[in-house]
Amino acid sequence: MGKITLVEEVGREVEGFDQAIMVVVFETPNTERIQMKIAEALTLNFENTSKQGKAAKLWSRLIAEKFFIILDDLWK
Q1: 9, 21, 25, 76: which has the fewest C-beta neighbours closer than 10 Å?
Q2: Which residues form the NB-ARC domain (predicted)?
């Protein structure tokens, strides 16, 4: 079993959270890409939203429920 497969399995098995979200970060983290991947998992629409607006929208959704966020392949 590979590392990513193991991480995906942990995400499926975790209890006590409303949703598990996995984002592959890669060697050079890209904050906007990470935000977009989390937003996709939450079915949030960021169309015509500023950088600060995206962060506020994402944050308000994340604090509304309990999420388990896995950042995989994080180098630093």
Answers
A1: 76
A2: 1-76
